[in-house]
Design a protein that fits this description.
The complex is a heterodimer of chains A (372) and B (400).
Chain A: H1 10-26, H2 29-35, H3 44-53, H4 72-84, H5 91-103, H6 108-118, E1 124-126, E2 142-145, E3 148-157, E4 164-171, E5 174-181, E6 187-192, E7 201-210, E8 212-216, H7 217-256, E9 258-259, E10 262-263, H8 268-297, H9 302-328, H10 339-351, H11 356-366
Helix pairs in contact in A: 1-4, 4-7, 4-8, 5-7, 7-8, 7-9, 7-10, 8-9, 9-10, 9-11
Chain B: H1 5-18, H2 26-35, H3 57-66, H4 78-91, H5 94-106, E1 111-114, E2 130-134, E3 143-151, E4 161-167, E5 178-184, E6 190-195, E7 204-215, E8 219-220, H6 226-242, H7 252-262, H8 269-297, H9 304-327, H10 352-359, H11 369-380
Parallel strand pairs in B: 1-4
Antiparallel strand pairs in B: 2-3, 3-7, 4-5, 5-8, 6-7
Helix pairs in contact in B: 1-3, 2-5, 4-5, 4-6, 6-9, 7-9, 8-9, 9-10, 9-11
Classes of the chains: A alpha+beta (372), B alpha+beta (400).
Protein name (chain A): Acyl-CoA dehydrogenase
GO molecular function, one term (chain A): flavin adenine dinucleotide binding
InterPro entries (chain A): Acyl-CoA_Oxase/DH_mid-dom_sf, AcylCo_DH-like_C, AcylCo_DH/oxidase_C, AcylCoA_DH/ox_N, AcylCoA_DH/ox_N_sf, AcylCoA_DH/oxidase_NM_dom_sf
């Protein structure tokens, strides 16, 4: 284990500045709120700009495969900015899909499709429930006979906009990953009304739908697990970005809101809560950076680093969104205020890829702190 | 032109070739090391340093340790090295720097800090120890006559010198009437009494100052500038306390985790949950502290120090409380109530009861958690200060 680099490089800060500028112009919270009850809850035009023009969908893809050959370090900076603006874009599904497909790039079909995922013209997702714990057993709910897949998976993130779905299934050889064109017959999708207005999910039902096997056996299990671990680690960075936003906005509000003839930020009851939140966000940033750096180095402590980051950040982001609401008082309870957008994203992301307790259980195993 | 890492390695090699640490008297060796500028390399030449970058110090220390050289026992003179030395360097005159820094670094002269008083804890600037100038001192030099009581003074019973803040002008508002001195702890009128703590031992002392005469040449900074000098000193304290970055399980969590591994029969699900939460918090605090170090090394001192200090205090208290509950019956016992004055407090070498009691001080010493939260809120987040009525009134009119 070498010491992690917990700072941001200049290149990473430049990338952040570009993403932040774009999101400030195209994705302020009023636009997010206005969109979330329309027929187009996702801003796919924004996604294509982020993915294609800014190139973020290519970061995890090697140059040999036509990508940027960057790492989770750069991608985590993007994740922070997306969290900061609660951007309604299919980001999580892109992380899952890219991590999976890059590991299956020996398959001709995958190689052929990758450029379209990289430039944002095609979207994909992975058919696992959003609450799946990365360290859990391979899913069993879809069976494959030959190339025909049957079964259903609920809470599949960004399902409604996906062109392709990577489906973990069990076939005659055991675990396998199949690539399914979402438009073929035998695929049906139903959306669930989400708590988080900015991130959608649904149930996919497969009835003898045709797919192409892209991994099998131990490879399939390893690839899916690694994709889930990577995405969970980057989700921690998204949570840091949102938590920082909640803190920043609340601090500004505490300076401008007057009650009892004083700025409410001059009361220690408020100051101490914000100081504690600032400390929490600082620590969340350290553990999330540690996860991103460890993932980038791919060392043998990857799962531990991600488990620590998720155990810490997924609760901290909820605290930040709840403090944001409480310290705004009544205005925070209104629809016309972004507090509910932040809270919905925070609370849902806390459930995504296992709640903190699941990650702590994994830490108990990895750090030799066994159960009773 | 500054010394780089390669040159520094060469200087150390040359020094060790000329001064065999195994064949020399310990103090002679340390003095020679100081004179060669290898004591604290970021200090100026002639004062134990070479004007090199601060980050190069670990390289030098490692090279000396590797050669089997004696060190200056830094844990026995923590106030001197961590607080007095940087203050003397920054605010002292040339004569003061030459007189005090060398024996301070070698450990020949131990230092203590006379700041806190029974009536001035968090509100240090309200302190009441008086310093009255006596123009007719010894010979042509003026003297100051100091009266008052200081408290929480670690090392006072071993110290040769103290850094002291006293009130030189009660008619000024509290921050403006202070002056900073170097006080001779062997001078007549200095009385040191051990202060027994809830742990049974006395790490600290009370110091009574009665008519203590301090030559004006031992004043550090201008008359009335004592608060600015003291702030400089306290900045070093926060860095010293908050800047450590231990290894994983390097702090008290390691002791609790070991106890957990050794006693499967004592485990419960509730305790398991608590231990894992504490373990994650300890790891988060460790990484925050590591990040702080990396920011400092990159020349960008982040304000995380106060937050890390709060987190360490809360963690230590929670972990030591957990440890007693987990142990059960052995948690009822206490290793040693005998009154003594330890040279250095090592949590790991004492029993769990001691750790539990001593950790209670972590959220009080070096800035209470409440004051640190104010500092974060006001200096980091830029929130408005508390409305205060004492700032511009003459000190002598303040309610006490």
């Amino acid at each position: 284990m070498s010491a992690p680099d917990l700072l941001y490089s200049e290149v990473e800060e430049d990338l952040r500045a570009n993403v932040r500028r774009l999101l400030r112009d195209r994705c302020d919270w009023t636009a997010v709120l206005a969109r979330c009850e329309t027929d187009e809850p996702y801003d796919l035009a924004l996604w294509r700009t982020l993915a294609g023009e800014l190139g973020l969908a290519s970061l995890l893809v090697s140059e040999e495969l036509g990508g940027a050959g960057a790492s989770t370090r750069e991608l985590s900076v993007v994740a922070e900015e997306i969290g900061r603006s609660v951007a309604p874009v299919p980001f999580l599904s892109n992380l899952l899909t890219t991590a999976t497909l890059v590991a299956c790039a020996d398959e001709p079909r995958v190689r052929e499709l990758l450029p379209q995922f990289i430039d944002g013209s095609r979207l994909g997702t992975v058919a696992v429930g959003l609450t799946t714990v990365p360290y859990s057993a391979f899913p069993q709910s879809v069976k494959a006979e030959g190339t025909a897949l049957s079964g259903s998976v609920s809470a599949v993130v960004d399902l409604e906009v996906a062109d392709y779905v990577v489906v973990p299934a069990v076939d005659a050889d055991g675990a396998a990953l199949y690539l399914v064109d979402a438009s073929v017959s035998g695929v049906s999708r139903s959306a669930t009304t989400p708590l988080d207005l900015t991130r959608r999910f649904g149930t996919i039902t497969l009835d003898r739908a045709v797919g192409e096997r892209i991994a099998s056996g131990a490879d399939a299990e390893r690839i899916l697990r690694q994709a889930l671990v990577t995405t969970a680690g980057l989700l921690a960075a998204e949570q840091v970005g949102l938590a920082q936003k909640c803190l920043d906005v609340t601090v500004e509000y505490a300076k401008t809101r007057y009650q009892f003839g004083r700025q409410i930020g001059s009361f220690q009851a408020i100051k101490h809560r914000l100081a504690d939140l600032w400390a929490g966000v600082s620590s969340a940033r350290a553990v999330a950076r540690n996860a991103a750096d460890t993932l980038a180095r791919g060392d043998d402590e990857t799962e531990l680093a991600v488990a620590i980051a998720q155990a810490y950040c997924s609760d901290l982001v909820v605290l930040a969104a709840e403090e944001h609401l409480q310290l705004h008082g009544g205005i925070g309870m209104t629809w016309e205020h972004p507090a509910h957008l932040y809270l919905g994203r925070a609370k849902s992301s806390q459930l995504a890829f296992g709640i903190a307790d699941h990650h702590r259980q994994r830490i108990g195993e990895l750090a030799d702190l066994p159960m009773p | 032109m500054t010394v780089d890492a390669d040159e520094l390695r060469g200087i150390v090699r040359g020094f060790l070739a000329a001064n065999d640490p195994r064949g020399m008297d310990r103090l002679d060796f340390l003095r020679a090391r100081f004179d060669a500028g290898l004591a604290w390399v970021h200090f100026p030449a002639g004062l134990g340093g070479l004007g090199a970058a601060r980050e190069l110090q670990p390289l030098v220390d490692a090279a000396f340790a590797e050669a089997g050289a004696p060190d200056n026992r830094p844990h026995l003179n923590s106030i001197g090295l961590g607080m007095a030395a940087p203050t003397i360097l920054r605010f002292g005159n040339d004569e003061q720097r030459r007189r005090y820094l060398r024996p301070l670094w070698t450990g020949e002269e131990i230092w203590c800090q006379l700041f806190s008083e029974p009536g001035a804890g968090s509100d240090l600037a309200s302190l009441a120890t008086r310093a009255v100038r006596d123009e007719a001192g010894v010979g042509s030099e003026a003297e100051w006559v100091v009266d008052g009581q200081k408290v929480w003074t670690s090392l006072a019973h071993r110290a040769r010198w103290a850094i002291l803040v006293a009130r030189s002008d009660p008619d000024q508002p509290k921050h403006q009437g202070l002056t900073y001195f170097i006080c001779d702890m062997t001078a007549p009128g200095v009385e040191v009494r051990p202060l027994r703590q809830i742990t049974g031992e006395a790490e600290f002392n009370e110091v009574f100052l009665t008519g203590v005469r301090i030559p004006d040449s031992q004043r550090l900074g201008e008359i009335g500038q004592g608060w600015q000098v003291a702030l400089g000193t306290l900045m070093n304290e926060r860095v010293a306390i908050g800047g450590r970055a231990p290894a994983r399980e390097g702090g008290l969590i390691g002791i609790a985790a070991e106890a957990w591994r050794e006693h499967p029969e004592k485990r419960t699900h509730g305790l398991h949950n608590r231990l894992l939460r504490l373990w994650v918090d300890a790891e988060a605090t460790r990484l925050t502290s590591l990040r702080l170090r990396q920011q400092l090394a990159a020349g960008d001192p982040g304000p995380e120090g106060s937050a890390v200090k709060i987190a360490f205090a809360e963690l230590n208290q929670a972990i030591t409380g957990f440890e007693l509950e987990f142990l059960g019956e052995p948690g009822l016992a206490y290793d040693d109530w005998t009154f003594h004055q330890p040279e250095f407090t090592d949590f790991a070498k004492r029993g769990p009861g001691f750790r539990y009691l001593r950790a209670k001080g972590n959220s009080i010493e070096g800035g209470t958690t409440e004051i640190l939260r104010n500092i974060i809120a006001e200096r980091v987040l830029g929130l408005p200060p508390e409305s205060r009525t004492d700032k511009d009134r003459p000190w002598k009119e303040l309610p006490r």
